[in-house]
Design a protein that fits this description.
Layout (H helix, E strand, L loop, with lengths): L12 E6 L14 E6 L21 H8 L45 E6 L3 H5 L3 E6 L23
Antiparallel strand pairs: 1-2, 3-4
């Protein structure tokens, strides 16, 4: 994560402390990392910075409050441009480890459909760390997308 710091504190040494946020029951690493942010100027350079109190690796409220304060620097001065002229195609292989495929062989994949994909942490999807794969119908009957069920409610505009 990149962090923009506003250096407006009294000259001194300050800890910058980062810890993981865990919202899963999967085993996780609870290590923290620290760095010292040090101002130039006249002050006691040998004084040990005070370490801030961390609120816990599973504190969802504080993690959520922090996340909603993140902002892009996108502006006229710092434009965030996205390429619109795509000149190269790339292939990304996705596996859910359900069908072993021998090395250097072509294996059958998913039939047609729209597949939502994100990593193993649900919160990441709300941060935009996800994608949708749209797989079109194949030529064979078993490669066609099934029609929606007859009792499926229609989409509505709210």
């Amino acid at each position: 994560m990149d962090v923009l710091v506003t250096a407006n504190q009294t000259p001194g040494r300050y800890y910058m402390v980062f810890s993981p946020f865990v919202d899963t029951t999967a085993p996780s690493n609870e290590n923290i990392t620290m760095g010292i942010f040090q101002y130039n100027g006249t002050y006691n350079h040998s004084e040990t910075p005070v370490s801030p109190e961390l609120l816990g690796f599973t504190n969802k409220n504080d993690a959520g409050n922090f996340t909603i304060q993140l902002r892009s620097l996108n502006s006229e001065e710092h434009p965030s441009t996205v390429p619109t002229n795509i000149t190269r195609n790339i292939t990304i292989t996705v596996s859910v480890n359900t069908q072993p495929c021998p090395a250097n062989k072509t294996c059958s994949g998913l039939d047609g459909g729209v597949w939502f994909m994100h990593c193993h942490l649900e919160r990441h999807a709300s941060w935009g760390m996800d994608t949708v794969l749209i797989v079109g119908d194949g030529k064979e009957k078993h490669q066609k997308v099934f029609p929606p069920p007859k009792d499926m409610p229609p989409c509505t505009v709210s």
